[in-house]
Amino acid sequence: MFPQPGKSIIFDTFPDPTDTWEIIETIGKGTYGKVYKVLNKIDGSKAAVKILDPIHDIDEEIEAEYNILKALSDHSNVVRFFGMYYQKDVKNGDQLWLVLELCNGGSVTDLAKGMLKRGGRMDESIIAYIIHEALMGLHHLHINKTIHRDVKGNNILLTTQGGVKLVDFGVSAQLTNTRLRRNTSVGTPFWMAPEVIACEQQLDSTYDARCDVWSLGITAIELGDGDPPLSDLHPMRALFKIPRSDDLTVKCLIKDFELRPNVLDLLEHVFIRQITGRAKILQKQLMELIDLNQQIVIAGKSRHERIHTKKGGQIMSSPTHDEVDDLATLEVLDELHTSYRLSTNLNIIFFSVCLVLPLAQYTKMYIGAKRTAYPPHIFAVADVAYQSMVSYNADQCIVISGESGAGKTESAHLLVQQLTVLGKANNRSLQEKILLVNNLVEAFGNACTAINNNSSRFGKYLEINFTCGGTVVGAKISEYLLEKSRVIHQAIGEKNFHIFYYIYAGLAERKKLAHYKLSDSKPPKYLLNEHIRLGPDIVNNTFYKEQYDVVEQCFKVIGFTLEELGSVYSTLAAILNSGDIDFSSVTSEHQTDKSNISNIAVLENAASLLCIRPDELQEALTSHCVVARGETIVRPNTVEKAMEVRDAMGKALYGRLFSWIVNRINTLLREDDNGLNIGILDIFGFENFKRNSFEQLCINIANEQIQFYFNQHIFAWEQDEYVNEEVDARVIEYEDNRPLLDLFLQKPMGMLSLLDEESRFPQATDQTLVEKFEDNLKSKNFWRPKRVDLGFGIHHYAGKVIYNTAGFLSKNRDTLPADIVLLLRSSENSLIRKLVTHPLTKTGKNARPNIFLSPSTKICLAIGDSGTGESTHHPRETTNMRTQTVASYFRYSLMDLLSKMVAGQPHFVRCIKPNNDRQANKFDREKVLVQLRYTGVLETAKIRRQGYSHRILYANFVNRYYMLAFPVHEEPLGSPETCAAILVKAKLENWVLGKTKVFLKYYHVEHLNLMVRQTTDSIVLVQAYVRGWLGAKRYSKILEKRTQSAMAIQSGINLYQFLQQKLNKIILAQHIIPLYFCFCNVSVDLKVCRMPRRTQQPKTLNAPEDSTYYNLIHVSLTPNSTEPFCVPYKTLWEKHFYLMAFSKNARLMSVGHKAWPKAEIYQSRQLLYGDSS
């Protein structure tokens, strides 16, 4: 009946559809393509066509649907098949057309939702009729050895005549006599049977045709309720809940499929047999419902998409379906590959896959958004950290980890970008400065390696400082473990730090190479490698020139002065020039080997840039002083020793210059210590090269420490809390790397302690070092590989790495001779003096200058510190000299870094490297799987799904969520009962109350926060209405007051006009006459003053009794004047008085005073009003 298994369909043998069919309109979307209504050009009949792209990944589904439709569509309850067509289209791509019967009645899901929208529900008899017809169609499939595997309401269509048709056979399975069961997990989550789900979780699980019975039982519930059970959950989360549900009591929902009835058994069920003899009547009623339903447009039509997983294969799904963003609900991670998803979530852990592609930015989309509202993105991590900081008033820490080249640095850039947007700095220049900090420090601290063109060669912890309200106010950067050895030597296929190439190309572009003693034809030795042999290889590089401009702009915007910038360039050029100094061996008369400089011109160039004397530099490089028994002895250096001194000077200058730049940035972006901060850790990733040295050991130990912190936070601390709170939770096994950390860091027998001990012996060699490791390190994680003399192996959490100890001791000692320190302190360049004057901290960095030290203290420090980690008043080498080693600096750096991380609430970003070839759109499944395993992703997903990721104190929980169950004005107690009442009100399950805390699943808190947000929004809306009403009331009062004031003004104007007409004489008074008036109900006291004699100025006194003179303002009497005005008394000039009157806006209330003579009062009223009362 069916074609032979494995025989593929040849698409181009099918006819062209445009010869027969014409598209009329779009109907909807199927699983793998759109569905259109088409017209038959020959007979005028109408049909439906599903148009598919012949993609290789879905050939199996296309073939299955074609075979089933071709063989089984002759049943009344299976959609009729009119044929397959193939349309060739070079421009838009070839297409397959599956032409099917047109079912104008829509799906039974649409019918059920339509009835619910009208306030009704589908009658049981109608449901029984639909289920009966679907069972008949399934019976036809099952007897022909076919399982549908995706039975649901959307795949049961109706015709306008009341017909019921099964459609969509893309994932149907064809059985054979030798294979009556299947073991592929496929279907739509809400309708999937438990045994189908179990196939993805249990290797030995299988199922048969009775899985369709379960799906049909779910569909029956869907017809009554409009949605399947658990539809309020995420589709993938339903996968894990359906097998454990206890409320599905219908016979077809028996969980053990061995006990579940088959299709024939259900056809005999009493619920189905109720339609016997009523089929025609029910079909007619169904037709009426379809006709009524088609008159209503159903808004928000939903379609639940199916998934298809194969054991060891990949998830197959519609390109348009809502993919899973939460690893806690997912067992197979290949979905990242299938759809090139770049990221996914696991509660506080964010996974990002770097596909070496330019990505669009979605800054505003993720601000304040729900975590599941949009696909996972690094911006969402920034928003979660920012919202947590503001909501809980607590510092946050974002830890970015992953292999070298996985995209950690780019992720850090995006985090800083989003946090500055969220912080909305009041000063736009501050925001710009913070964004440029990364570019500047990465130019000095990043380099090209064999596996990453922009590899971080230092650890960076950037703290962005905020006010308590969330406004950005500053930033601080801490640098750790700079790989200084890269300055003097790079492995094959690698380069020096970026900044050297940038300034070389940039200075050449500006014709300034000669100023810095650099040649444009031959680059310095420190920059030479297999790709760079000549100067033009650097000078002609456009990217380097552009980056020089970027770096220079960064310096200027952040706040460095031009003098400082010039000193930085001089120091870098001095390092490059010193690397070109060559030495030759000279045998003295005492047969002692000593060195001499063979290229004096280069020596002079380096000395000129360092602002020191050439002869002193030559002496410091070719000899050294030893103080023994109070006597200073000068000993010559061999060529090897002189080269070591030269290289040590270059490394020290570069390392201290880097620290100085970081300290200067921190000064210019001074942080607010009283606020909050979000820290971002961007540290070098795990490395495993063909040859691994001391640098790789330190890098990988740091990554082990980060992994330990991750394990402690995710697993150990969480499970310890379960025990302390007496919460019954399943223990998750995880790989604990603490023994490995002890192997490295334990005292006195740890690897770093043994390395320091061996470094103190002058006669120690790299061979004695590896032998000491083998004798003292007894651990399963350490071994000596055969036939590798200087090698040892470490089994890291990320895999096995073999290290070569050649150079371990010299790199660990990293001594800068005291002669060089003393010489550089005499430099005329102030920056170079600073670099060797300030002492190094325990972490090996330049100490930040303390501006509060007294001048005398600073002088003592400058004299006393040699710059080598110890204080001595005579910077000369002694026989018992003890200096700090790189290993000790490294140990203290880890401690300092951890102290910063532990201070904040952590958020983890795990960067996954898709391939080792640095190619875009290449997904190496094995490479990704290895990273997911060693980073503990699967264990993390388990503990997030089975454990309680959020543990909140009762008081804090009630304080935050009490409004969900109690009136806002109440203050309920922070008790377990109150917490339980809130959780019950929120309709949450599977939470636990401990002794002092509420234990919640990771999705509980998101649901609660959403409810709080909705409640808060409602409160704010009510407050807005109340404020609006109060504002309207206040405004009406203001209008009333304005009306009264306008009337008062009009009265004042009338009085003013009256006075102009009547007042032709001035009241004479020998004393101060108070005139009381009212302007807007405010009384003002106006006074009469004596006219000054000739040029005499009025005198200001404390009281009227002291004098008859008052110092008052005088203005001219004009009609438009609103100020007080004066009228000189002319009629009775011999009295020399004048009257200070009121403004035209005032209203006269009374004239007179108790001290006035009655005759004067009478005269005043007569003059003003013409009466004699």
Automatic annotation (TrEMBL):
Stretches the record annotates as Actin-binding: 894-916
One Pfam family in the UniProt entry: Myosin_head
Record family assignment: Belongs to the TRAFAC class myosin-kinesin ATPase superfamily. Myosin family.
Record-linked CDD domains: MYSc_Myo3 (cd01379)
Subcellular compartments: Cell projection; Cytoplasm, Cytoskeleton
A Gene Ontology term for the protein's cellular component: filopodium tip
Keywords: Actin-binding, ATP-binding, Cell projection, Cytoplasm, Cytoskeleton, Motor protein, Myosin, Nucleotide-binding, Repeat
Chain ranges of the Myosin motor domain: 364-1013
Occurrences of domain Protein kinase (ranges): 21-272
Amino-acid positions noted as binding ATP in the UniProt annotation, renumbered to this chain: 50, 402-409
Protein name: Myosin IIIA
Leader sequence residues: none
Gene Ontology biological process: positive regulation of filopodium assembly; regulation of actin filament length; sensory perception of sound
Record GO terms (molecular function): actin binding; ATP binding; microfilament motor activity; protein serine/threonine kinase activity
